Amino acid sequence: MTPPDKPYVGKMRNWHAYLSVAANGPLGGAPIDARFKPWVLRPKVATDLTCTIPDITYWEQNWRDKPGYRGAPHQFHQAEFDVDYAKVAASFEAIGGTFAEEAAREPSFDGGLLTFCYSGHGREKDGALCLKDDTTFGADDFIDACLEIRRAAPGVGRMRVAVLLDSCHSGAFILRVLEAVLHEHPDDLVPEYMLASCMPDEISYELPALGHGLSTFCWSVRELGSGSLVATAHNMPGLTWSIAQGPGGCSFVTGGRQNPIKYDDYELTTAFNSVPVYVSEDSVEPRSREDWERDLRAHRDALYESFAPLRRRGGLQMTVERVERDGGGQP
Questions:
Q1: Contact 141, 89 (CB under 8 A)
Q2: CA 247 → CA 98, 183, 199, 241, 272, distances in Å?
Q3: Which residues contact 266 (CB under 8 A, 6 or more apart)?
Q4: Exposed (0-12), middle (13-18) or buried (19+): which is 285, by Cβ within 10 Å?
């Protein structure tokens, strides 16, 4: 099957569904020593709702404020806290029902945009989202849910999908979603935007003292006038962490240990470098997931090695709360 033309980046949808999920980590939170409060990082395997709810709340507000999205005349927002697989699946089914009703009522239904946001822990190797009662929701579960919505409400255009994750191993999740959308279902789905808080083989951290995942916090740092920064996720003006700004800031402050991945404008980016998604600039043929991941790892490894002199001199030190866990290795 010949894939359709690349999606036009700026083509917005008039129907927008936004589902966000905040989860407790499998270990349910670890105590933080107040003496190190501003700097202690906690692996997200031990996260709890005190950090994950603020994460998804920030992202939803950020999304609502984006030009083009805030003008969508039909918006459907839903948030779920500490739920299991069945509840997440039911939430996607509800979106399908809503889109189906809209499509039946409006002949010009444009296929819609589905945005999915999650903060919590992600399973090692595949980044599957860890939910209540030891259930998980994987990338293929997400794709299946998208296709069910698409079948329920086909519309005049393909459904656009966006994914925002602050969770361990989340890079594996979005790379699988991007692979499925571009290689397996290009006639039905279009990738709008994707953000993972770390590479497939990395864990994600959070800042319990600030109540946010590190990736979300760094992403929220914005310039507020000349020489002044604000972390909008925490409403903290005058922030001195200028090096923490954006996804590259997350890489920098962790010395290359946690490197967010972003998909936007036909490119994947991590560790201050870009990786082409398509074979060439003029091609509509996507490269393989293996090629994407190989290039992303090369950029990450190069960045990590560039910090080696600083690490040897003690210039890059992370204070990480040690937590007991069953798998995934110690940070």
A1: yes
A2: 34, 27, 12, 13, 8
A3: 6, 9, 276, 277, 278
A4: exposed
* Count of CB atoms situated within 10 Å of the CB of 172: 27
Q: Specify the pTM.
A: 0.88
Structure tokens, 177: 């979603």
Q: Which two tokens stand for residue 251?
A: 């890489």
Q: Report the C-alpha dihedral over residues 67, 21, 289, 15, rounded to 10 degrees.
A: -40
Do 74 and 102 touch, CB atoms closer than 8 A?
Answer: yes
Residue linked to tokens 């979300």: 216
Q: Where are the alpha helices (DSSP H) in the chain?
A: 49-64, 85-105, 139-152, 170-179, 214-220, 246-253, 289-306, 308-312
Rg (CA), the chain: 19
Cα 302 to the center of its chain, rounded Å: 23
Residues contacting residue 317 through CB under 8 Å, at least 6 positions apart: none
- CB distance 170 to 202 below 8 Å: no
Nearest CA among 203, 187, 241 for reference residue 219: 241
Q: In what order do the strands lie in the sheet with 236-237?
A: 221-223, 229-231, 236-237
Per-residue pLDDT 10s for the chain (331 aa) are 334 455 544 467 899 999 999 999 998 755 555 444 556 788 999 999 999 999 999 999 988 887 777 778 889 999 999 999 999 999 999 999 999 999 999 999 999 999 999 999 999 999 999 999 999 999 999 999 999 999 999 989 999 999 999 999 999 999 999 999 999 999 999 999 999 999 999 999 998 877 899 999 888 876 555 554 555 555 544 444 555 666 677 888 788 899 999 999 899 999 889 999 999 988 889 999 999 999 999 999 999 998 888 767 655 555 555 555 443 333 2
DSSP 316: S
Taking the C-alpha atoms of residue 231 and residue 117, their distance in angstroms, rounded to an integer, is: 20
